[in-house]
Design brief:
The structure is a single chain. The chain is of the alpha/beta class. It folds into 2 domains: 65 residues, Ribosomal Protein L25, Chain P, CATH 2.40.240.20; 162 residues, SPOUT methyltransferase, trefoil knot domain (Alpha/beta knot, 3-Layer(aba) Sandwich). 33% of the residues lie in helices and 23% in strands. The chain contains 7 helices and 11 strands. The protein has a 6-stranded parallel sheet with strand order 8-7-6-10-9-11, with helices on both faces. A 5-stranded mixed sheet has the order 1-3-4-5-2. Helix 5 links the parallel strand 9 and strand 10. The chain is elongated, with a radius of gyration of 20 Å. The model has no long low-confidence stretch (mean pLDDT 94).
């Protein structure tokens, strides 16, 4: 059944105008009034719905019963990702959402080739928000992972963190798997560097700020692989997958 995110609050019995992109998608699918849909607004759960009207550029749906369905991990993992080059960030965000990440914090690190500020940063943020929405539609999540604005690594590190920070580093003596086996599931932040990893200066600063350095195994992973491997590893050991 087609499943779509609608940013406006949904309520049983109401008729809502669907977002333009959703209307276009339904038109491409040649769906007709009366067709069944699933809608969610990011506040939890989902709604059965029925397509009420459709045209080339607009569509509306009647909201039916609420379904208390959730697909969140039982522990919150935030991904603090050093900005990679090209479209790698799209891939990382998409797959991290599928694996259950609870939030994404893009970081401008010393080795980040991409530099974002002003209007360009706003456009990328809006694009990444769309990636989160599409990934949530696909994977069955009914809550959107919050996406923070791009932050400078040093300023972000200096801010207090409500959860432990784990620095993924190939130089760490302990693996994430071994650490997770000896600790109960808990909220945490995974720190992943861009291409080439965080600099030695950044790693030292993170450790001085209380971060725990852990590796993801004996092989050095690319930046677009490291976070996903870590999320899958935690899911396998702590559950929720």
């Amino acid at each position: 059944m087609p499943r779509f995110y609608c940013p406006q609050p949904l309520a049983q019995g109401s008729t809502v105008d669907l977002p333009d992109a959703v209307a276009h998608h339904l038109h491409v699918l040649r769906m007709q009034p009366g067709a069944s849909l699933t809608l969610f607004d990011g506040r939890g759960g989902q709604y059965a719905a029925r397509l009420a009207e459709i045209g080339k550029k607009r569509a509306s749906a009647t909201v039916l019963e609420h379904q208390a369905v959730e697909a969140e991990l039982p522990y919150a993992v935030t991904l603090a990702q050093g900005l990679p080059e090209g479209s790698k960030m799209d891939w990382i965000i998409e797959k991290a959402v599928e694996l259950g990440v609870a939030g994404v914090q893009p970081l401008a690190a010393q080795r980040s080739v991409v530099r974002l500020s002003g209007e360009r940063a706003e456009k990328r943020h809006a694009h990444w928000q769309g990636v989160i929405e599409a990934a949530s539609e696909q994977c069955g999540r009914n809550r959107l992972a919050p996406l923070a604005p791009v932050a400078d690594f040093g300023r972000w590190l200096a801010a207090p963190s409500p959860a432990p920070r784990i620095l993924l580093s190939p130089r760490a003596d302990q693996s994430l798997a071994d650490w997770a086996k000896g600790n109960a599931p808990q909220a945490l932040t995974l720190m992943v560097g861009p291409e080439g990893g965080f600099s030695r200066e950044e790693e030292d600063a993170a450790l001085a700020a209380g971060a725990l350095a852990l590796s993801v195994g004996p092989r050095v992973l690319r930046t677009e692989t490291a976070a996903l491997a870590a999320l899958a590893m935690l899911g396998g050991l702590w559950g929720g997958m």
